[in-house]
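Field reference: sequence -> structure
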Amino acid sequence: MRSPVMNRVKFFSTTDWACGMELRKVEQVMARFGSEPEMTTINDCIELFNIKLYLDHELYLSEWSQKLIVELKAIVKHKYTCVARFFASITDDKFEGLYSSLDFDYRDDFWSLVESFKVYLKLERDTLRRLLDSSIVNLREILRHKKIVDHFGTVIREFMLAHVDSAEILLDHYEVRHVFGTRPMYLPKELAAADKTQIISCYINDTQNLNYLQLVARMQSKKEKIELPPKVILKAKKKAEKVNASFFEENSGVRMQASVIFSESQEEPVILTNEGFNLESSYSLKWIEENMDFPTLMNNFIYLFSFTDLCMRWTLISNRKSMGILEEAAFTRSKTDYVKGISFDMINRHAGLQMVSYYHALFRLGIRMEEMIKWFFDGYLPEEFSAQCFRLEMPSSGSTYLEKCTNVMPAFESVLKQFCLYVQEGTVDLELLEIRSDHLFFENVPSLLKNKYAYGYGMEFENASFIFFSSQSTMGYTENSGEKYGTLFDLMRNERVKIGDFFAFQQSRIKWLIEKGYLLEGEEGLLEVADAWVVHILSDLHHNEVACYHHYPQEGQKAINDLVTKEMITYESTLLSRPEQAYLNYFLNRSQFSNGLDLRNQYSHTQPSAGEDQAVHERNYMIFLRLFVMTIIKINDEFCLRSKLEEAQKNEER
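Structure field:
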């Protein structure tokens, strides 16, 4: 086995920052290999294989001359015949000893070469069975190699049926979303659907792993995945609940606290305190009483509660940029999960308190929030924008929270369908609306505006965004500045840097930014941003996933248009941005996410009992109202922006 520090050459990827350090080792190893007549150990053979991968991908140190590169390639080509002879000499009786002598990081390379040189054809089935049973060989290593899996399908099937933890392999293959990416695994064709169900069912009985139990409990049947019977999924759900309850009996966990206060003595409209996992906000009831008009009361959701930013993007969505890489990787998640972290839970818990507190505060002042929502469609839109065709009926004051929950979602969906018709026809024909029976998908609700949202795409966008703004790019430090800056963008905002200040492995990325026109070498070789608007837009897209075209000034819009021409940005014209569509789908259904709360369908299909805890229905109703209000803000933004564009066009025509 290898020492804790891997001193041999290892090929990681064509983009890994470690390439430079590994290539430094190549020079030393190749000098040694050049003087040796044969490859004497399995680790020497695999090290040469890794060196060959670097040269095949044309990854070289900048100071290597063309002559040296030609010499290195010639040595590798000559020595690789030794590798072929070495693997040709491997027999079944030598296999276990060779495998045991491998450096740990070379195990997967070993199986790649076993597959490439067809050594697996010499391996007896009983030998592989013994290696798997003794845990000398990890099954996952073999499953990455299709030809080996095909050859030993029966042995692998028998092993998986005998070891219930093979369920984790199945779930990793079909269900788990891998943060750092992973090589594909191949399952033997001999493993039938009934075998997979049996393995997972036995695993549920045996395991206490809450992550995998919850994964099974949320699984949805699809042809490309495992189709588990409902009884197995229900068994996983009950086991997960039991394990979860036991865990919290034994562990206090981390306390997250959110509080909302409406103060009668506070003068400031809002005071926010955010310390660690404690989020507190206090609002002036006096200020609210002095500003009781409906427009201001609705604007409070923007300017007091911060449900949106100033571009009217929802701020309560899950933003993976707010999650650390360790937090994102800490939990086992399905490929179809809505990915959310601690920050999402905190701000949405706080938003729930804001909503219920505001609802009851207004009610005590004689105002029902439902009346405000109805006023927006019945009063505001007709008066401000001559949109007189919307109709809305909200739940009555005397209805229970269960009844409110049952009635509010049809009202919400009706408004969105009316908006769709308004965009398409310029008015809402209620008779036509009644005839149309299209199912509502949030991603299909159109916009009144052309090119409303901008999204980044393509390798150049991904590379530029990563190098400038990702803390994982390792570009935020130099030898002079140290590690006090997280990103290249932060470094350049605070320090005067030249390309020579960066380490060798960083300089290729700086040169790429210069070549692509994002950076310039100014006076004295100092690096400068070539176009501030372009970098600002890349930053906006990196941190928010979407840019709102019509909230940019003309200079910014021109820069976005230029990026569209370069095929780095694409436009979409929908009422809701992609992150906002996902947010609604997470709360209301399971059309997109297996861990969705499915609140809409709970009230439209299963019809909860009126005897259930009314506090649950009240909480759900506040979520429905919050989503309704946030959608109203989007609709209002549409009408305001369209009015502004029409006014600008009139001024130009004059």
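Note: The two ends are 81 Å apart (CA to CA).
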